[in-house]
């Protein structure tokens, strides 16, 4: 048996090497200051900007079995949490190298598997002391005071950021823009909850602080004042601003031409009656520097809290949120709109203009709107033999009969709007446009449910199933407009907004002038949304910025330094077999090296070290301070309260003015650790089976061989 182990360790573990190589491609995605990558499609020659492990792995040509396993692992993490994939990818590479180092020191494979698994379980138990309840986080962050520094406002003025919670000041217009000019109050042309968006005037300000807004209630002509601070806005104005690196070329002329001081009262909703203050701060803490998505998400959270009538529910309804990417506009036009915003063709836009605020009768289709569509589980009759089905459905007589019959059904029930979950027949779409019926395809099921609840419509699978009770009422459609009331005409596709009275649906409209950046913006928004969702679901968060990983590193080094001889009673209790204690220190140090690489790359990517070597030295200094403190967890929590672990006194985000701390999800982070190590150990054992054969590897991993192999 010892000779067998030497045989395994002497040969090359191709699987581990492939895993390490694939994982190394995503090391720049670690940390808040990610280095983006361009992915070029060889067929279309179109490029896409990415900064996530999911998009990277999807873009790679993974022909090997190891690549497929890595892809499945990352997809599983993405499907469940929508976050933690970059951590998973990096740790897969770091721990693959750690396992190879153990093999080079002739550590038996059963010892590697057992000690690493036990070491990670011990780390997961140890870091539980760092978990912070959401209630305490919101309380602490709401009490945090933003340093009074000068920030640049989008109205061309330079103001003073007072000691006010900037996230408390957000209220709503019909479209809640991340950054927009003063919007006049117009009469609400539709009934329903959309009218609530006209309660306040919103003047969002740029700069971090972001998200801060000058708000004036309708009819309020009082002088400006910072809510809760006693500092007037006009007293903070120091000089006109004509040029700034934060302003785009498009915005310079508009901003520099604006004159005068702020008008209106700085006020917001009642002081955190719904917890919006805490949710806004928590979103910032979980954003890791993503400002645009933070502002949109804070708008969504506050609107959903308002609809909940201050019931105390702090959950974010993910099912009631959709996204729509609009190309050709600056990113400053990104906003949150009530209802469903989607892209339509110019011909469909003509139909929408014809509706002109008229109430629409709506029909919902749970499937494809094509002649050949059959629902999942459809069984053909057993006693019928089909000779030829649909010989020419698009151009022949049979196809025309189907088109005419389906059109007659819609017109007989006076249907104006059809939302389809799947695809729509092109010829049928053209016929509906000619009949002034708006048909929208590829609509998410959650959107169908929201319209069904708001209008009373019932989804059907086939148009032949439609009856009077299936058709809903009270929907309306219009072309989407920017925050300043301007219609958007981008040529090929136009954004349109479909809504109904009382519908809880919100659309995050993500605008960009770069087509290659659209997918990136959408991924960033959903990542932050699910981070907040899982944080509220878990009821607790981890301190971020490397705090949890630093405690794991300190804990593993402490375990490795403990005596590990087989005769040691404590070692016997900690490890399943006494002989494993001989390799405990080597394997635990290898596992700890993965955490150290993680922290070093995190510091280097965050521009807090000139090299990974310097970053590693900084990590060692923090470890020494933790040992000198006597309790690593106490030291880490104290550093986090002072502003963040491994920060060395610098701000968490460049050019930002805030004392908010960085937080991480609990379940997503720990599950990413487990998935990373499980994948590495699976590839390790698979390599061993390839080298020695499955039967021999089974003997090596048997309990009997573990106990007696070195006797």
Automatic annotation (TrEMBL):
The lineage of its organism: Eukaryota, Metazoa, Chordata, Craniata, Vertebrata. GO terms for biological process: chaperone-mediated protein complex assembly; photoreceptor cell maintenance. It holds the Pfam family Cpn60_TCP1. It comes from Dicaeum eximium. This is BBS12 protein. GO terms for molecular function: ATP binding. The gene is Bbs12.
């Amino acid at each position: 048996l010892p000779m067998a182990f030497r045989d395994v360790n002497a040969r090359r573990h191709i699987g581990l090497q492939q895993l390490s190589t694939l994982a190394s491609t995503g090391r720049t995605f670690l940390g808040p200051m990610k280095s983006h990558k361009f992915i070029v499609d060889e067929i279309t020659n179109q490029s896409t900007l990415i900064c996530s492990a999911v998009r990277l792995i999807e873009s790679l040509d993974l022909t090997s079995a190891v690549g497929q396993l890595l892809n499945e692992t990352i997809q599983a993490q993405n499907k469940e949490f929508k976050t933690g994939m970059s951590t998973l990818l990096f740790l897969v590479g770091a721990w693959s190298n750690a396992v190879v180092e153990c093999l080079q020191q002739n550590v038996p494979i059963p010892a590697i598997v057992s000690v690493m698994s036990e070491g990670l379980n011990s780390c997961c138990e140890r870091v539980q002391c760092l978990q912070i309840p959401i209630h305490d986080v919101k309380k602490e962050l709401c009490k945090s005071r933003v340093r009074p520094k000068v920030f640049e406002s989008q109205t061309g003025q330079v103001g003073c950021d007072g000691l006010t919670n900037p996230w408390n000041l957000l209220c709503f217009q019909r479209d809640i823009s991340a950054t927009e000019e003063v919007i006049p109050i117009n009469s609400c042309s539709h009934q329903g909850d959309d009218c609530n968006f006209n309660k306040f005037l919103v003047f969002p300000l740029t700069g971090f602080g972001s998200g801060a807004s000058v708000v004036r209630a309708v009819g309020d002509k009082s002088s400006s004042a910072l809510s809760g601070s006693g500092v007037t806005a006009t007293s903070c104005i120091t000089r006109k601003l004509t040029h700034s690196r934060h302003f785009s070329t498009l915005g310079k002329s508009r901003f520099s031409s604006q004159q005068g001081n702020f008008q209106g009262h700085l006020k917001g909703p009642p002081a955190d009656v719904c917890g919006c203050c805490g949710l806004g701060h928590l979103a910032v803490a979980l954003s890791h520097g993503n400002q645009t998505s933070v502002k949109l998400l804070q708008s969504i959270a506050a609107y959903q809290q308002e609809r909940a009538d201050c019931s105390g529910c702090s959950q974010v309804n993910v099912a009631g949120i959709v996204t729509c990417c609009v190309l050709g506009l600056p990113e400053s036009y990104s906003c949150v709109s009530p209802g469903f915003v989607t892209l339509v063709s110019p011909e469909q836009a003509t139909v929408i203009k014809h509706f002109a605020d008229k109430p629409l009768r709506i029909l919902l289709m749970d499937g494809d709107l094509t002649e050949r569509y059959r629902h999942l589980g459809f069984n053909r009759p057993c006693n019928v033999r089909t000779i030829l089905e649909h010989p020419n459905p698009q151009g022949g007589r049979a196809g025309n009969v189907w088109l005419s019959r389906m059109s007659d059904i819609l017109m007989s029930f006076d249907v104006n709007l059809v939302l389809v979950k799947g695809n729509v027949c092109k010829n049928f779409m053209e016929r509906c446009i000619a009949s002034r019926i708006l048909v929208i395809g590829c609509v998410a099921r959650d959107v169908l449910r929201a319209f069904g609840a708001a209008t009373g419509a019932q989804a059907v699978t086939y148009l032949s199933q439609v009856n009077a009770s299936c058709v809903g009422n009270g929907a309306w459609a219009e072309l989407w407009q920017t925050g300043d009331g301007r219609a958007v005409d981008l040529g090929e596709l136009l954004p349109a907004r479909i809504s109904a009275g009382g519908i809880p649906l919100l659309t995050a409209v993500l605008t960009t002038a770069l087509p290659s950046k659209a997918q990136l913006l959408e991924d960033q928004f959903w990542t932050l949304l699910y981070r907040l969702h899982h944080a509220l679901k878990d009821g607790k968060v981890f301190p971020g910025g490397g705090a949890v990983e630093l405690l794991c590193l300190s804990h593993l080094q402490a375990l490795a330094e403990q005596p590990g001889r087989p005769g040691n009673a404590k070692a016997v209790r900690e490890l399943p077999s006494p002989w494993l204690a001989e390799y405990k220190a080597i394997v635990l140090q290898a596992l700890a090296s993965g955490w150290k690489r993680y922290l070093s790359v995190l510091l280097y990517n965050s521009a807090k070290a000139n090299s990974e070597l310097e970053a590693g030295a900084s990590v060692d200094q923090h470890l020494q301070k933790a040992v000198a403190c006597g309790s690593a967890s106490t030291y880490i929590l104290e550093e986090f309260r002072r502003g963040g672990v491994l920060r060395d006194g610098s701000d968490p985000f460049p050019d930002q003015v805030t004392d908010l701390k960085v937080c991480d999800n609990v379940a997503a982070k720990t599950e990413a650790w487990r998935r990373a190590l499980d994948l590495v150990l699976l590839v390790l054992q698979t390599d061993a089976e390839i080298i020695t054969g499955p039967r021999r590897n089974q003997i090596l991993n048997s309990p009997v061989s573990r106990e007696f192999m070195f006797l």
